[in-house]
Amino acid sequence: MQPDSSINIISSTQRITDRRPDSVDLWETAHTLGFPAALWRLPNQRDKHLIVSFEKVLPRVAADLDELPAGFLISPFDNLNTDTQSPDQTLFLRADLQAIFSAENQADVKAVSGEMTDRFWQAWHSLPKPQPEQPSNSEMLTVLSDAGAEALYVRNVAEAVEAMQRGEFRKVVLSRTKQVQFANVPNAVTLFDKLCQAYPTAFVSAVSIPEKGQIWISATPERLVSIDADGIFRTASLAGTQSAFEPDGTPKRPPEAMWSQKEIEEQALVNRYIIECFKKIRLREYVEEGPKTIIAGNLMHLSTFFTVDTQAVRYPQLGTVMLRLLHPTAAVCGTPRDVAFRFINRHETHDRELYSGFLGPVNIDTTTEGAASNLFVHIRCMKLEGRLATLYAGAGLTEDSVPEREWQETEMKCQTLLSVISK
Ligand SMILES: C=C(O[C@H]1C=CC=C(C(=O)O)[C@@H]1O)C(=O)O
């Protein structure tokens, strides 16, 4: 595809200056100007991507993959398509400036020509010169104690179990938060880079939302909806959790993992939820693979993979339609969905905000083959507000759940980020 003449591109042969911007430069420039930015790395890929939106207050849009221009979506959990009161709650970062960084952190940048782009480059030129390496964050992170948190969580799980034993619903995912304080405001790009290195199979991202004063950072293992350049649709069900390590620290072998009946049932419910969504649109031509044990950082899960060739089934809008039907899946909400959603709202005392929503690039050229959209469930994430980080973790409950074990599971999930950002 030929680049548009109104887009200026810095390529390896065409530099606008003697210094080429790296991801920290572009992130910091966006931050200085109050522009939203998203930085991400797709699972099993090396290139990192960054977009900057020149809209300081992000538009709330319908998550329509067929209509939206290139950009990045990030949706709250509390964003049900049946909620007619506030139907469009997904935040959209339009790709006004777009950069791809190769493994050497060399940028190829493209941006639409105009006043805002000029302002951006001026601000970049005025950035203070790169500082020597900052000290690492180790020993500079304090976990803030929340005395009643465990007791409250355990009580809520016990109530959920009783409700499920009475037959009120089959599954619910209850979450909690854990707060940590950095001694100094951490560099989001450094945290992002550490996560990329630690978790090559995760979707790793950092999203800066200046209007909220928040940066969300995550390393999620859960794909929600992808449509690649050839029109291949992908989704997956993910549930069931155990440590990826033996008590002596040796890594477990995924094919030999043992799963309890509770975990098999918990994942089967997510699977059934996805199949029900296909049934609603009478789509039978999906390929289902699994369940298989997968590694997600320090943890293992059960996952089933679904693919559909949207060209073969002549359903080009499948991604958009399934996104509307799937979110929030039974991996973060429960079944039946609306009953579980109400239980969560009645029992969780924190606002989930963007945790357990979805996020990812839409209509972005990720390869030479054309534009693709890749949306993930926003788990294994934290919200950064200055020096304060709030980590979020949930556990899928069934009538067989043991409350204290579920609390332990959320602790392990918090460790996915904590063990990396504290190094
Ligand atoms: C809700 C979360 O994880 C979900 C995804 C995989 C396994 C899960 C579980 O075993 O409970 C959860 O359903 C989370 O990490 O906050």
UniProtKB/TrEMBL annotation:
Superkingdom of this entry's organism?
Bacteria
Among InterPro entries, the record links this protein to: ADC_synthase, Chorismate_C
Which Gene3D superfamilies does this entry report, sorted A to Z?
A: Anthranilate synthase
Specify the Chorismate-utilising enzyme C-terminal domain's residue ranges.
152-413
Family annotation (PANTHER family):
ISOCHORISMATE SYNTHASE ENTC
Output this protein's name.
Isochorismate synthase
Q: Which organism is it from?
A: Spirosoma endophyticum
Tell me the classification of the organism that encodes this protein. Answer: Bacteria, Pseudomonadati, Bacteroidota, Cytophagia, Cytophagales
